[in-house]
Amino acid sequence: MNLIREIWQSIVRRDPLSTDKGKSELVFLNVWLHIHPAKVKKENLRFKYTFYLGFITFFLFVILLTTGIALMCYYRPFPPQAYQDMKDLEFVVYMGPFLRAMHRWAAHGMVVCVFLHMCRVFYTASYKKPRQFNWVVGVLLLLLTLGLSFTGYLLPWDQLAYWAITVGTNIGSYAPIIGGQVREILLGGHTVGEAALLRFYVLHVAILPSALILLTIVHFWRIRKDGGLSRPTWKLKPNQPEALVTIGAPAQVEPLRTVAASKDKTYGLMEVVTGKPIFETIEADEEEDAVFSYPYAFFREAIALMVTVTGIMAISLFFHAPLEQLANPAKTPNPAKAPWYFLGLQELVSHSALLGGVVAPALMVLALLAIPYFDRNPSRRPTDRKWAIWLFTIFVVVNLVLIVIGTFFRGPGWAFVPPWVHVVAGAE
Amino acid sequence: MNRRAFLGWGAAGFVALCSGVAVSLAAVVRYLVPSVFYEPPQSFKIGDPADFPFGPPTFLPDEKIFVFRDREKGFAVASAVCTHLGCTVAYFQSDQRFHCPCHGSVFGPNGTVQHGPAPRALNWFEITQARDGQLLVDKDKVVPPSYRLMV
Amino acid sequence: MGICSTVGPCCCGGGVMGRRLPQIFFALSTLALVLIVVAVWQASTPSWKDYQRRFFQLESQAEPNAVTKAAVLATPPQIHQILLPGLQRVDRCTTCHLGVDDPTMKNAPEPFRYHAGLGSHIPSKFGCTICHGGQGLATDVKGAHGSVPFWQDPLLAKGYIRASCGRCHKEGDVPGVPELTAGRRLFETEGCHGCHKLNGVGGSIGPDLTEEGASHRSPEWLEGHFLAPNVVSAGSAMPNFHFTKQQARELSYYMLSLTNADMGFFYSSLRLIPSPEYGRQLFEEKDCIVCHAIGGVGAKTGPDLLAVTKRHSPEWLDEQLVNPQLVYPGSSMPEYDLEANARKALVAFMSSATAEDAQSILAHRGNALTPADVAIEAGKRDFARFGCAGCHGTELQGGVPNPNAQGGQIPSLLHVSDDYTKGEIIEVIRNGRVPPLENPAGPTPPLYMPSWKKLMSDEDIHQIVDFLWSKQQKAKDSW
């Protein structure tokens, strides 16, 4: 018994969890948990503030990584075989349909959740000083997520994949000067073919995931270094000075009170060394607002994880990933549609190639990147930033409306056809 | 709710989670076991008995087997894969022995090692007659060299 | 709410501290466990395992003793597949159709019944889908039989399975499938090539038919379409050829046999035996009698072929068939692109051919031949071969509707000599022509005269014009 305890102790190396020291050590002695602070603010745990969208996005990515690696064992990125491998996954590989469905739905879910997460961060004005750069990292992560989803779209090599990628890459080729060349590099040719499949595969399983993992690390690190998750400061007790909660810049650092730095509290190595925190100031009042990460934050994160996993599993049990006929460059389905998240752009391209292919996407990305530096309004209170909220809401709604039109209201020949009208494809 | 109940539910949840993970891991292992093989099957038909001559064995290069047919004793099938490092051996009618080109192993008429580095005798495979009259070889079933099929 | 030093007070505090979190966590973990167990159960109980169990039960009934019975029943379930690298196919049909090569299963219920009468087409070399269609990769009944969305080649309907013989037997008569042979003939004689491309050859007014056999069309649809194109697919530019029901069936057979799937070396049908019978068939097919006579019966353009094998060696004749100009400079004999066995067969036929053979070949052709007819006959063949008849009709009557073209239909060719010189018509054939519009503001007519100069040689065009003019004469006579 003693031996077991000794082994256990050698692994965890912390005091019992019933003590505050134990709770703190659980976090900072554990390589997987120490990205958390030992204590978190209560407001940060509030579901209605973050909806845990960042966590859910991250967990979806974990699902995608694990299912994706499993799927790689049965996939060859060459045209006829790729499609046959999809059929094998469907018909002979044990749990193949389930894993493929999980990968597919998690991928769609991740695109949705990244976008919703961005909306949440915007509406709570969490991109403001000192978190400007983390917003930029977030926008890059959004682009990488779209890139991963888009490259993965081609891999089944069926008609759906082939024509979605043909249309999608053609939207990009409207960009002046570089558009055509970028498309050529991306496809390894002028049309989607063997070379394109191989390149998309390399992007999908190596380049983009590595980039996404690296940027995710930066994203998480910056959350800590920028002073933890933002809080709804405008909802805090009025007697609490705003400056105290939004600080983060070194200039605003105030010395730590001796009482707060007592022996029983743990603040990390750097504070012990310098005797004061580098970014976050701990005030006695605020101390009341903080709780230990264990168990409060961890239970919630575990629940977010379980909701994500069970949700994806439940959907995957009932809805399998689609697989159409083998890609046929000679037969264009009517209508040929890009992946749904690019249908807004395709809708614009159908009106004006310049607008949908160049102006809109460039403006969107640039505007998103510039938001934290362009928005000089220091207040985070919603009533103080009506203009920003209106503008962003219009941006979101226009995007959604265009995507909904492109997805549900476009029939053969890109004619406007409501989804409740059944159209028989053109007679031959 | 007291602390005990709080941790009790959490522990029960943790147990359920661990069981789920265990089932998933087992499923992943099963997922990795191939259900079909894209390689020549281990059990296959080689044709009608009348296709095979008496006397020197017939070598089937794709299946890597020698089919022996003897007027008195009947059919037998020997592996053509050297037990040393997997090269394909050749049968010499002159000395009625199998010679491996890679490291000079020599196997006797019944497959036993006579020279060279080969650790074991050549395998002999089961040969039966299927219901449609064709000869059926099963490489998964190794039989003693004395095994014969009379048709 | 105070500083939490223990868990207790906080978790009862409600609100942000989440009183019920552990319960929720427990519920979700349990749900996850249930879901993964359901997924595992689903994956472990595919329908084919039931079929295998039933088959082993059936098989064990025939076993004489308890030990072998038990051994059969204990056979582990597994997916069977026939790898066909030469066809780029994998057929898993035998996962359920387990008795297909087992004669003792002759009277077993489906799906276990023995497939009799396959001859050399043994399942382990040919698989199943090459003849039957269906989705060989699938392991569930619906998917395997292929009547599912996004699968182009479902099981061929009963009564049409033999259409697929034409997928490998791509040339000439297909023994035992007269419908297919007749369908091929009809396609040639009715000039379908004029509008439809097949393996890269033909017009582009109608759809390419190269892969028509894998287009998910049912035999009923095809037959209906041949009987009344406009009814089955509205707005079709295809004229009604007034086929009989039998002809529609024959053409449907041919359509179902069309696929551009590579059948590979092993599966391509090659005539392996250069028999005189095959030679005679080729002699008829290539219409040698149009230029050659045998024992004085036939045309006089080329030399009489009676006893030709006595005058020339087989090698010389073979060379002559490969490249007539090389052996016999100035020869007007065309190159026929015959493979080696076909040339040998022709030589074999010629060594024994007599005037009676020529007589019966001529009778088989249906009309006696005068030397004057030979050139016109060549033009007539070209007229059919290049598909002119598809629009202008086998009797040059025209009349195919062509909305908004002048006259509203394809013009008859029976009176061209009244309006055009031979030279003008040659130009029209060479360069093509868009018909003048009835209503200048209306739509472009669907049908037009394509340019033929890339497909037809000048000789072809002249022959066709000669044929046209011969018809003019007759038309005027009967006028």
Q: Can you describe this structure?
A:
The complex is a heterotrimer of chains A (428), B (151) and C (479). Helices cover 61% and strands 1% of the residues of chain A. Chain A has helices at 2-12, 20-28, 42-45, 47-50, 53-72, 79-91, 96-123, 132-154, 159-172, 179-187, 194-225, 242-246, 269-274, 284-287, 293-318, 343-351, 353-374, 386-408; strands at 39-41, 290-292. In chain A, helix 7 packs antiparallel against helix 8 (132-154) and helix 7 (96-123) crosses helix 15 (293-318). The radius of gyration of chain A is 25 Å and the shape is globular. Chain B has 2 domains: 1-38; 43-143, Rieske Iron-sulfur Protein (3-layer Sandwich). Chain B has one helix at 3-32, and strands at 43-47, 55-60, 65-70, 74-79, 90-92, 97-99, 106-107, 113-115, 124-129, 135-143. With 479 residues, chain C is an all-alpha fold. Chain C folds into 4 domains: 48-155, no CATH class; 161-265, Cytochrome c-like domain (Cytochrome Bc1 Complex, Chain D, domain 2, Orthogonal Bundle); 273-368, Orthogonal Bundle (Cytochrome Bc1 Complex, Chain D, domain 2), CATH 1.10.760.10; 379-478, Cytochrome c-like domain (Cytochrome Bc1 Complex, Chain D, domain 2). Chain C has 23 helices and 4 strands. In chain C, helix 3 runs antiparallel to helix 4, helix 9 (219-227) crosses helix 11 and helix 15 crosses helix 17 (340-352). Classes of the chains: A mainly alpha (428), B alpha+beta (151), C mainly alpha (479). The interface between A and C is large, with 41 and 46 residues.
Strand content of chain A: under 5%
Top-tier CATH class of the largest domain in chain A? Mainly Alpha
Q: Note the overall shape of chain B.
A: elongated
Shape of chain A: globular
Mean pLDDT of chain A, to the nearest integer, reads 84
The CATH superfamily of the largest domain in chain B appears as Rieske [2Fe-2S] iron-sulphur domain
Number of strands of chain A: 2
Mean pLDDT of chain B: 89
What's the helix-strand series of chain A?
Answer: HHEHHHHHHHHHHHHEHHHH
Mind describing the biggest β-sheet of chain A?
A: 2 strands, antiparallel
The end-to-end distance of chain A, rounded to whole angstroms, is 80 Å
